[in-house]
Design brief:
Elements: E1 18-22, E2 28-29, E3 32-33, H1 37-40, H2 43-51, E4 55-59, H3 82-92, E5 96-97, H4 117-124, E6 130-132, H5 146-157, E7 162-165, E8 186-188, H6 190-203, E9 209-215, H7 222-231, E10 234-238, H8 239-250, E11 253-254, H9 259-272, E12 284-288, E13 299-303, E14 312-313, E15 315-319, H10 327-335, E16 338-342, H11 353-364, E17 369-372, H12 375-384, H13 386-394, E18 398-400, H14 404-413, H15 420-435
Parallel strand pairs: 1-4, 1-7, 4-6, 5-6, 7-8, 9-10, 9-16, 11-14, 16-17, 17-18
Antiparallel strand pairs: 2-3, 12-13, 12-15
Amino acid sequence: MENLTIPIIQQADLKGKVVLVRVDHNVVKNGIIHDPYRIDATIGTLFHIISKGGKIILMTHVGRPKDKKTGEINISDKTSIQPIVDYLQQKLHIILKVPEFYAHEKQGYLGVETSVNHLIRELKEGLIDGIYMPNTRWFSGEEAKGEEADRFANQLAGLADIFINDAFGSWQAHASTVQVSKYLPSYAGFLMQKEIANLERIYHPENPFLAVVAGSKFDTKIDSLFALLKKADYLVLGGVIYNAYLCAKYGFTIKGIEEDDMQHALEFVKFAKQYADKIIELPYIIESDTMEGKLDGKNRMRNIHEIKSGSSLNYVLDIAKESFLETKVIEVFHQAKTIFVNAVMGFTPYFNEGTIALDELIDSNVNAIKLYGGGDTMQELKRLLPGLYISALDSPNYYIFTGGGAVLKAIENGTTTGLAPVKALITSGEILGKTK
C-alpha cells in the first residue's frame, strides 16, 4: 500500500467500543440482491471487529432514491437495505436490527432520531449482534452540502466511538463517507486496504500493461482514458466509447452515437495521436438493424477497414469474436504482464460474443495479473462465464474491485489520496496522531 499514513483497523482499540462501519453494500436492485460479492468482501472486517470486542453499526447507500432534478427523496422497498440485512443474518447466523425513523414526504429522513438509542442499549448489552442503519441516501443530509451535511455526519458520529470506512466503491464526498471522519477516530477496513493495495498494481504495473475499457458513455470515462493512455503500453476500447472513437477517427457515422460522445471522441482522437501505437483497434464489429435482440438476418459482421468515410451504419452492438483471433491482438494479450479490465463489449443481454471472447483470451494468459473493476464488468463475467468467475475469485492472479467508478476516479487522479474518503481518513489519522 502507498505509504500515506492511512490509519488502519489493525491499529484501533475496538474492545467494548461501538464501531460505525461504512460499507458499500449497494447490491440491491428493485428489492433483490443479484450478486452478494460486495457484501461478502466486507465480512473479514466485520469478523475482526466482533473478535476484538467491538459492537457494530453498519451503514450503506442503496441506489439513487433522490431525484436529481427535484431533490425529492423517495423512500421505497426498491432501495431498502432489508434484503442485505436478511442475507447477513442468514449467512452469519446473527441478529441485526434496523432503526425506524419518521419519513417526511419528499424529504426523506431529516436526521438520526433518539429512537435509535434503545437499539444501541440492546447492542451494548449483547441482546443483538448489530445495527444496520437505513439507506444513507434516505437521509436528507447524506448528499447535502455545508451545515446540513455536517449536522447529519455529527449525528452519525454520535452513535459510536470509532469509525471504520470499508467502502472503497463509495468514493463520492458524502456525509457518511467523508464528513463523519471529522468527528470520530477513523480507520480503513480490510477491504479498503486491499482495494488500495491492488490500485498500486495499476499505478506501478509490471509491464507490458494492457488496459481494456468499454462503456455506454464517453463522458464518464474520458479523463481516466487520458490517464490510461499515458500509463498503459496498450489500450483496447469497446462499447459506445469505441463506436464514437471509430466515427471520430474514420469519418463514418453509427446510429445512436450522441453529439456529446462525438465531441469527447474527437478530443480523445486528437490527444491519442501522440500515442498512436498504443491503441489496439479491434477490426471486426457487429452491426445490427435493431436493439430489440440478436435477430436472424438483422445483424452482420463488418470490418472497420472496409467501411468508407462518409458511410452510415446502423447500431453497432458488439465486437465480433473474430477480432480476438487476430495475430496482433492475441500477441498483445499474451505478452501483457498486467491487465486492467473495465469493459462489457456488447449490448447486454443480447450481444455477448465480444465479452466472452475477451474474457477467455485474458484468462488464457495464465501468468498475467488481471485486475477487473466495475459492477457491470463483474456481473457479465459471472453471467456469461460462471466457472471462470468462480475460479477468478480464488486465484492470486485475479483481483475483482468492488467499485469500478472508484477505480477509474483513482486512475484519473493518479493517486488514491485523490479520493475524498481516503483523504478524510488521512486527515483523521493526522489529528489522532497529534492528540496522542
